[in-house]
Design brief:
The chain is mostly helical. It contains 7 helices and 4 strands. Helix 5 packs parallel to helix 7.
């Protein structure tokens, strides 16, 4: 079995191929003084900026444009660091594996909490998305250890596709689109509906994948088999 940090990556997202081409194009043109860790730090700062922009949109609707711009910056920092390392053949598999996923967890929590503190989404919805995403991430890391593969795909929608959807929704909200309503006496927005739907789909995908994984592992390690004494 391959080391978890070096397990082959599998991407099945809608934008995976054009994204890969764009990242390679950018990696080939970055100045030599720009290192993968610089891009990782850029992604972290962008995630914090996105959270602050959503929070400030309570008083300044134009901050949604700032959030959209920072989502692009976050994509560059979050997606380009590993591509740059591989392009220059300066990979640090274990270091990168650890740092990348630690940063992903932090950035996801920050952005979801920022959304939840904005006037466009309930905090409970933001936290539900964060918890569902982190559960999927934990399952991916467990799969890497159990099966020696790093499979990012839970369907055709991944982090980049989510960013595109957020930018589109930010644009609609900034232009004054009415996306609010009320369900059972609780104010709810279109972002809440979409967010809760996404969280539900993520949980369903997790359950389906976990069921499949446990079936495979149970075949490899049948219950009730007595191990011979060494």
């Amino acid at each position: 079995m391959e080391h978890t940090a070096e397990a082959p990556r599998q991407k099945t997202f809608l934008l995976a191929k054009p994204e890969e081409r764009a990242l390679h194009w950018l990696a080939a043109r970055l100045p030599r003084r720009v290192l993968p860790d610089h891009l990782t730090a850029l992604g972290v700062l962008a995630a914090l900026g996105i959270a602050v922009a959503y929070l400030l949109s309570n008083d300044h609707q134009w901050m949604l444009w700032v959030a959209s711009g920072l989502l692009v910056v976050h994509w560059i920092g979050d997606s380009l660091d590993g591509t740059l390392a591989r392009f220059r053949r300066i990979e640090r598999p274990t270091y990168g594996y650890y740092l990348d996923h630690l940063v992903d967890a932090f950035a996801t929590a920050a952005i979801c909490i920022g959304l939840g503190l904005s006037p466009h989404m309930l905090l409970a919805t933001g936290l539900a998305i964060a918890v569902a995403y982190l559960l999927l991430s934990i399952n991916t890391y467990l799969e890497t250890s159990a099966f020696g593969r790093f499979d990012l795909g839970y369907g055709r929608v991944g982090p980049t596709e989510i960013r595109v959807v957020l930018v589109a929704l930010n644009t609609a909200l900034a232009l004054g689109a009415a996306m609010g309503g009320e369900v059972l006496g609780v104010g709810i927005t279109l972002l809440d509906a979409i967010g809760l739907g996404i969280a539900g789909v993520m949980v369903a995908a997790l359950l389906a994948r976990a069921t499949k994984n446990l079936r495979v592992l149970a075949e490899r390690e049948p219950a009730g088999v007595v191990k011979p004494v060494a």
